[in-house]
Amino acid sequence: MKSIKYLLSGILLVVPILVHVLLFAQAERTKPEKVHYYAQKMMPREWYAQQAELWKIEAGKDSKNGEAWRNYYLATEYANRDGDPAASGAKLAQILNDMQAAIMGNALPDSYKYLAAEKQESRLQKAFFSEAGPTSLAKSIPGLYEFLILKYRHDDGNIAMLEGAYQLRPDDPQTYDDLIVHYETMGNEAKAKEFCERLYQSQYLATGLLEYNYNVLMSTEKNALLFTNGDNDTFPIWLLQRAKGIRPDVTVLNVHMIGEQNYLKRLLKTKNVEVDLEKLPDKDVYRCIPELGKAIAAANPAVPVYFALTLEGAHTKGLANNLYVTGLASRYSSKRIDNLAMLRENVEANFRLDYLKFDWYSENHVSTPSIGETLNTNYVAPFMMLAEHCEKIGEHKKAEYWKNFALDIARAAGDQALIEHLKNRKPAMQ
Asked: How confident is the model at residue 40, as a pLDDT?
């Protein structure tokens, strides 16, 4: 038998090893990590604040490291997203100024330095780019690509910056989504289609996002008009429509883009809808969206109006009694409709649902855990509605199937509150 002294010596040896492991784990957690765009991956504010400090150090070590500056900028932006916009904007502007000085300070010939100093960006742009593409000067400056992308992000609408970044790296999909928005807003359908095809081919978006938004489209009737909220319920739909030819009859109205009145009028014209936009509360998007939806439905009753389930509650405030869930979207109607029949037809006959159980190859995509699985919780409401409907008409196995499916989605998302909610109550109808 081993002595107590021998056993204690073993325990004492383990302690420093554990300390070393814990310290190593702490170091691993505090190392700089790639900061993804919100549309791809969301992290807690504290994580962004920590990463901002870490990437600031990295940019200081190598001032030509464009990727370090990019991560530093994005982490700072997201860490201050809910703070004072003016203070946040000042921080980001300072980062850009420091970045510009760092990457261009010694790279620019004397004849161009004053252009940067005087912020004569249009003339500086000509020094970097020609009709034939990037000049040798542009290609010689490390970090210019990242600078142009961030400059466009900060000075929204400065399309020259975005186009310059695209010229430098035409195969990098980071510029494609903003170029799609630009061409979509300008009404350049050919270019919008070109970049939708490029974005699709790049596989930049997780397949789960395409599957989800395929089902959004299948939640709508023919010739519908669909209000969407952000990147993850707009770009995938545009890709499906323009790159794959799926449901091009549906017109997408992103709530953050309808402030461009010429753009909005052009889209409404494709549906033969005329609305007096001057009568809408244009200064408050949350009041504008419900009123616009009602005005469109009144102007042309032949155009079904839908609101994606991804919209914030404030976007549909006041419409609750006139919205009917038909899948991953709600149909607006001033009169009662049999949405349960539409819901069942859409989900059971038209939806693609296998990916919710077996998402081949996409499980390791950066967007799948943080975006895709959270987005999928929007299936819970329609599935529970189906469960209650089936229970009422005596289809008990079907009812159990849809309730369990809803529970599986909640578990995959790690939403404990939703799991307990589903376990402790019977399915509730809309």
From this structure: 83
